[in-house]
Amino acid sequence: EAYIPQTDTYIEKQATINDEIDRLRISATASLLSRNDVIVVSSVSCLYGIGAPSEFKKFLLLLKVGDKIKMRDIAYRLSEMQYERNDYNFTRATFRVLGDRIDIHPAYSRDYLRIEIFDDEIVEIKRYDAINNKLIEKHESVVMYPAKLFVSSRKTIEETVKEVLKELEERVKELREQGKEIEARRLEIRTRYDMDMLLETGYCPGIENYSRYLSGRKPGERPYTLLDYFPKEFLLIIDESHVTVPQIRGMYNGDRSRKETLVNFGFRLPSALDNRPLRFDEFMELLDKVLFVSATPDEYELTTSEKVVEQIVRPTGLLDPVIHIRPTENQIDNIINEVKENKKRGERTIITTLTKKMAEALTQYLVEAGIKTMYIHDEIETIERVEILRDLRRGEYGCIVGINLLREGIDLPEVSLVCILDADKIGFLRSRTSLIQIIGRAARHVNGRVIMYADKISEAMKEAIEETERRRKIQMEYNEKHGIVPQSVKKEITDIIERKHEKVSAKLNKSIKKVEDIEEVFSFIDQAKAKYKDDIQTLIKVLTDYMFELADRLEFEKAMVVREETKKLVEDK
Questions:
Q1: Which of 18, 122, 384, 487 is most enclosed, with most CB atoms within 10 A?
Q2: Would you tell me which CATH number, out of the four given (3.90.1150.10, 3.30.2060.10, 3.40.309.10, 3.40.470.10), belongs to the domain 19-144?
Q3: Cα-based torsion angle of the residue sequence 505, 510, 511, 517 in order, rounded to the nearest 10 degrees
Q4: pLDDT, tens digit, 9 for 90 and up, residues 356-406
């Protein structure tokens, strides 16, 4: 959610939640409260506020065989826990009542529970597969967890509404005194609507903006986060810490700046500022044991850590690449010769430049020289970048030219040569850390080499070369001692189905508009089948898109034809 005053643009929060991610999120919190052997993999979003653990625990529902309880009492408790009754569309976070039994689909599970009751007594608890309704096992007891991370009692909600309306009255008065009538009116309408919904359903979109009142926190007090659900003793592993730690540091200020604009222009109450990520000091206070993982740790990790452990030896026995330094004179001709020789051996090349313009110009020059080359930078969308790198591995390109995006986080076993232009320039793209990361791109191949083009040796170059040689020496000694022969990494090259599907869909949308009658629908289906006869999965996606497009245009008969064809493909598959 954001507001851009310069253009008077309000960007509403997109409430599209990936169902599987939501299930896993609730599953993680439920597991942390119920067992000790839990591993949670999270992004830095774990720093954002969620409901208080104490409130979450209040809404646990224990059901045991032999318990005396009425069906309507179970239904009432489930409603309080944000489960929705739906006797027709039984999906995750819903329940249904069928005669003397109640089926519950937990928000954190792929299976559902069947509670059978006779004479107000639970006689059986069974767990079923939600897809084929197959009985999995019987239980003597089960613990049900809430369907959402923000759950509150009726009393808490009523107190929250009272406090929010009190703050609203003060804020509206303040805005009107400043001559901001539009902002005051907007804030009043939005907030009162939210409070009405909260009273009626116990939930509202953007409920996290009222979390300070719901969790009983004081102004400025830190929010509850996923970390509060962990026991006192736990291990936190921060992967790629040289990137993640600065990201954690910057989250609070970035969020604060965005929220202040929303508050100033009447989209949110000032208390919404307390719906925020943790500050770095608050984050560190919650931790017990921390393991920073990075190939190029920053000063913070090195000075904070009590012990530093290096992982230099690779299971494959591969060595860090050999580094050559060459002058900038005739560097492009030299690169062309190196790339061509590399291609003859079935190996690939990466070239890094300092600017996008230079990357594009060099790519054009290499293409004219007969080398299949592609550039990659931030203006190319993420999935397309991955596709380009896949095509490099396949051999469709012999060379890739890039800037910052080729530094780290990519795995290209076919790359044996990395060329670094302007290696002696001063700046973050040619710092010690950056150079080590770039050098590492050639460390997956047994013939790994790096060529630095420079007219002098900068301090960063010197340090990066010394560090690489130090590692290489340790690796060689280890291999010699244990009789290990280095081997290049073998890794399968996979297709990017989603990207292919996007391209297909783009062409498809143009074709759909031409379809006028049912014969053309059949013709379109036949053409699609012929085109994608060797790729059934893509064909199904194409026809599914086609079906929805026709339905959106109210062409339901034509959509049904496509649906039946798609069904046959799925069954035959």
A1: 122
A2: 3.30.2060.10
A3: 120
A4: 899 999 999 999 999 999 988 877 877 788 888 888 888 889 999 988 766
